Amino acid sequence: MGTMGEPRARGRFGEYGGRYAPESLVEACREVEAAFREARADPGFRAALAELLALHAGRPTPLTPARRLSQALGVRLYLKREDLAHTGSHKINNVLGQALLAARMGRRRLIAETGAGQHGVATATAAALLGLEATVFMGERDIERQAPNVFRMRMLGAEVVPVTTGSRTLKDATSEAMRHWVGVTGDSHYCVGSVIGPDPYPWMVREFQRVIGDEARGQCAAELRTSVPDYVVACVGGGSNAAGTFAGFADTSARFVGVEAEGGAGAARGRLGVLHGCRSLFLQDDDGQIVEAHSIAPGLDYPGVGPEHAHLRDLGRARYLTVTDDEAVSAAVRLARTEGIVPALESAHALAWVIRAAGDGELPAGSTVLMTLSGRGDKDISTLKELV
Ligand SMILES: *Cc1c(COP(=O)(O)O)cnc(C)c1O
């Protein structure tokens, strides 16, 4: 089996992954896995999801050549435009898949955690579309910081539950959502927002996001003389947009680069641990306590990385690098002024690496680079206003 196929038994990617959860959740995860295996083999399910993605989420998203920026950098940069997907990022791809699966399993409610609110908004959107209820757990501090998204979720009919434990941010909201799921597994589906959590989530979320990579592969074949780019680059929080993009090129010679926030570098600097149901790399102190992540991009503010990325790193199949908040902000401004696109600050991290690597020769002149632009910058306007 090549890389990025199915994980081994019990959701193992090398020494990472697994299903570290209380017995009641292990059973619930088994049910999700069985339902997912059945659904992905069912042409009816695949057609229904493809239709939702096309008619509601706006897929396929374009592959845009960044002409002026490419000329300045001396590389050929192509942007996979997830910023143009409904709700403004790639998160909708995964959420529509899981919501459709939940409905097929007879569940009437979605449970989700959210940090900045992007995954919560996507979940609330999918729930509304499919006639499901949505309960979104969100740290109290994030509720204060992300008022527009809190309102958006409520507008869409979701219940937003404030989490008052720990640092009152994403890590705590995730713990709380998992605890809540224990009591309601027969009635509710837990909709995880990235390639993290207990098996089958890392694998299932990657499969729902591989539409990014599969579309891009076809678009590259039509656009590029070589048909496969030299480099495939994406930002990495938990790692779902990167995993979905990489998956489309797993069988090629394209080099994979995942770009993390300096203060949230699970893959680049994390240590082996177990959190939220899976074994992976997490930022920890000397006692093994999880250290809080810090990034100007809320979607990169997670102290770990999905288990498959940890494995790809060990294999040398992908490299994981970091950029600073300042580099990301400069990259966002540069993209706005050369290409007329205001990117999400998360996506700006991937671009910041491309700009740096083109400048210091790490990216050879003339290289073709496919970069996933994971989302649009509207949500970051209040942050950017203070800095630009
Ligand atoms: C949530 C988010 C991310 C980070 O999540 P991944 O699972 O690493 O993809 C990146 N970009 C945007 C725009 C996001 O909303």
CATH architecture of the largest domain: 3-Layer(aba) Sandwich
Beta percentage is 15-25%
Low-pLDDT sequence parts: none
The structure class reads alpha/beta
Order of helices and strands: EEHHEHEHEHEHHEHEHEHEHEEEHEHHEH
Task: Report Rg.
Answer: 19 Å
Please give the largest β-sheet.
Answer: 6 strands, mixed
The strand count comes to 15
Question: Order of strands across the widest beta sheet?
Answer: 3-4-15-9-10-14
Kindly report how far apart the N and C termini lie. Answer: 48 Å
Gross morphology? globular
So how many helices?
15
At the fold tier of CATH, the topology name of the largest domain is Rossmann fold
Ligand inventory reads:
pyridoxal-5'-phosphate
CATH class of the largest domain: Alpha Beta
Name the helicity range. Answer: 40-55%
> What is the overall pLDDT average?
96
**Count of distinct structural domains:** 2
